[in-house]
Amino acid sequence: MKNLVDGMQRNLQSSKLRQWWSALWRERVLRLVGLFSLCLLLTVSCGGGQSTSTGNAPATGATGDGRVTIGTTLEARTLDPADAYEVFPGILLQNLGDRLYTYQPGTTQLVPQLATALPEVSEDGLTYTIPLRADVKFHDGEPLNAEAVVFSIKRFMENEGRATFLLADRVESIEATGENEIAIKLKQPFSAFPSLLAFYGTTPVSPKAYEIGAGKFKPNDFVGTGPYKLAQFSPDTIRLDPNPDYWGEKPANQGVDIQIIASPANLYNTFKTGGIDVAYQTLDPDQIRDLVKNAQSGGWQVIEAGSNVVNYLVLNQKSKPLDDVRVRQAIAAMIDRELLNERVFQGQAEPLYSLLSTSSAEYKPVFKDQYGDGNMEKAKALLTEAGISASNPLTLEIWYSSSSTKRNLVANTLKAAIEKEMDGMVVIEPKSVEAATLFDNLDKGTYPSVLLDWYPDYFDSDTFIEPFMSCEKGNATTGCESGQSQTGGSFYYSEKANQLIQQQRSEQDPAARKQQFEELQDLLAADVPYIPLWQDRDYVFAQNAVEGVEIQPSQQFFFWQIKK
Questions:
Q1: Structural domain containing residue 483
Q2: pLDDT at 227 over 80
Q3: What pLDDT digit, counting tens, does each position of 487-506 carry?
Q4: I need a surface site. Which of 25, 402, 433, 434 has the fewest CB within 10 A?
Q5: Mind listing the pLDDT tens digit for each residue in 462-483?
Q6: Residue 106, pLDDT score
């Protein structure tokens, strides 16, 4: 895996834009081992078959001492906020630490956490002044003050961790302007900046316990300000103890024991036999379906929530005949998301009609409005206009990572459905390639179309639009020559899209910003550089004696709410 990541870095290092995509695509690869593995071809029985040996320590088991046991197949590479950039470390940091801002439970409304108010923004949109709480201490007893927050944010930017670019590319300077006040100056206006300060990587840490310097990380320790202290961090067990001096809401439990379980089969069987209180990621679709079906008789709860992970098909506009917008529009009309959800995901996904997450306030189902699902007659008419016929068919290669079972199933399901209905006008050719090769060649125009997914770093519509639709250099004729859409493989260029992206980044009025995002989504549906397909859903299972298990709309998972 390290060679894979290093290879991606070498090929995406010529500009800051490439650094952005390099870091993001790198984590898309690393997260393939973590999130929602769809293995419909596995022969694991979901009726309660025997567990196989895992090499892990035995599961902690459900306890009667007020501690909560959670089982997962996810892994935590590090707990250092300056280097963490995977799903599970993010969940742990949300519970071990605090941030300047967080989200109101049950909503996507940004609220102060270590800050006492939302930022005061200068007229030019560049300087954010933030007041801080004065009653907070780190786990080691050191006070949280402006200097400590400045230290932590500088450390995030200067230690060269995996997500450094998120702040380093945007922040000009940061300083303490008082004992409990900081001022952050940006390089250019960015109205989503407060949401970025809710990203788990910005979690403040004790200056006494950490250092600033490239590569100076502490992966196995954590000293922050949150409701739990780290008691144990090993490859198979993580223990969190309540922080008795926590300034905020105290945990409803006596601690959390997390068991890292090697396979979905073992996680499934351990939960069904009562060995853990909560099972959270990753289970196979058949196992999820069985646990949902038998929840009442089995004595457990099903907690279902949407996620912010979007899945899409990128269309390369430099690849003929995809340079013809009518061909791209025809492909959009042929996609049947409901069919994919039924046949591939067993109803455990959500059809997606924009690149924005459905939980975004600005989400607009433009592809549903414009094309519907499986509208083959519209597709035939568009292809006919573009000169495509049964004697001159469209041959579309759909590429995907060879390690992704679910994308293999999606590509082949699309092939069967489209070729059956399009009367010989379309030939679909599913093709797979090793992930490193796929990402190395994405910005070179090698692939006509690619199945990909996107994990947002912070909860704001900008992170679903700007990395896809913006371009620094190019024109409508040649496409994007340098910029986000080029490195993302679509080569999309739109002067109007570029203008709208910059406008929404500078806009402080939410209503005006929403209108700009709606216009961007309309452009997306008209020009079709990408086709949104589905959004993953999250499932958590908890024994009936457990209360307070909930996945937040922002995808936060608050352990301190859980009790038995």
A1: 308-537
A2: yes
A3: 999 999 999 999 999 999 99
A4: 434
A5: 999 999 999 999 999 999 999 9
A6: 86
* Closest C-alpha among 219, 195, 218, 193 to residue 207: 218
Instruction: Compute the distance between CA of residue 536 and CA of residue 282 in angstroms, rounded to an integer.
Output: 12
CATH number at residue 427: 3.10.105.10
Report the number of distinct structural domains present in the chain: 2
Backbone angle region of 493, left / alpha / beta, with phi > 0 → left and psi within -120 to 50 → alpha: beta
> Considering the domain boundaries, does residue 497 fall inside one?
yes
pLDDT > 90 in the chain, percent: 83
In a domain? residue 232: no
Integer Cα distance of 306 and 554 in angstroms: 9
Last residue of a domain, one of 170, 191, 220: 220
User: Across the strands, what pairs with 257?
Assistant: 69, 239
Q: Domain containing 100 — which CATH number?
A: 3.40.190.10
- Which single residue is written with the structure tokens 């004696």? 545
The answer on 328 and 206 residing in a single domain is no
**Residue the block writes with tokens 């059809």:** 351
Q: What DSSP letter does each residue of 67-117 carry, written as one string?
A: -EEEEES---S---TTT--SHHHHHHHHHH---SEEE-TTS--EEESSBSS
- Name which of 4-18, 403-417, 430-444 the model is least confident about: 4-18
**Residues 6 or more apart in contact with residue 470 via CB below 8 angstroms:** 483, 484, 485, 497, 498, 501
CA 158 from centre of chain: 24
Q: What percent of the chain has pLDDT over 70?
A: 89
Residues 211 and 344 occupy one common structural domain: no
- Whether residues 366 and 507 fall in one domain: yes
pLDDT band at 64 (very low <50, low <70, confident <90, very high): low
Domain assignment present for residue 265? The answer is no
According to the model, what pLDDT value does residue 335 have?
Answer: 98
**pLDDT above 50: residue 447:** yes
Choose the final residue of a domain: 174, 193, 220: 220
Residue at 558 is within a domain: no
Q: Report how far Cα 564 is from the mean position of its chain's Cα atoms.
A: 30
